[in-house]
Amino acid sequence: IIQSVTKINQIMDTLMIKSRKEQNQDLQLVNINDLVQRELQLLEGNLYFKNKIRKKYFFDEQIDSIPLLYSYISQVFYNLINNAMDSMWEKKTRELTIVTRQDESKIYMDLADTGCGIAPEDLSKVFDPFYSSKPPKGEEQKEGEPTGTGLGLYTCIELLKPFNGEIAISSNLGQGSVFTVVLPKQQKA
Hints:
Elements: H1 2-15, H2 20-26, E1 28-31, H3 32-43, H4 47-52, E2 54-58, E3 65-68, H5 70-87, E4 95-102, E5 106-113, H6 152-160, E6 166-172, E7 176-184
Parallel strand pairs: 2-4
Antiparallel strand pairs: 1-3, 4-5, 5-7, 6-7
């Protein structure tokens, strides 16, 4: 319960507009492995995630900690995981693979799913506000079908901007997608 309340507070902080000065004061050294593992522990409370999805995790144990707003990166991870779960909703094979890695200048977090994938013509639109491949709430065709507002990926991009982060996508329609969060180790002034 305490972890859930903390998570809700982080989400609320993320949704509130903060000045650049406040953001700089809230920066803390964040280890992506620790963040991902903490978020995965919270997600185990979701029975679909816990029981219906096969998971593979590969963490670079030497990964550097970098200055970030924890709540921002936590929200990015949460949104990407939710999209991955939604994309696998009707799939027979539901597998989620998460990899953390780094090079000299950047930290990477790859989230791969065996979901429905994204059509090539839609790849350029997925970060647009209000674009969604999922129906809006109330317009589902089947009971339990995932719905969307078209704000999840857009929010991810906005939350990564203060850290000069980005998201790369590779996808095969009908086979799944890989979303890669890229964070520079040194922030630009």
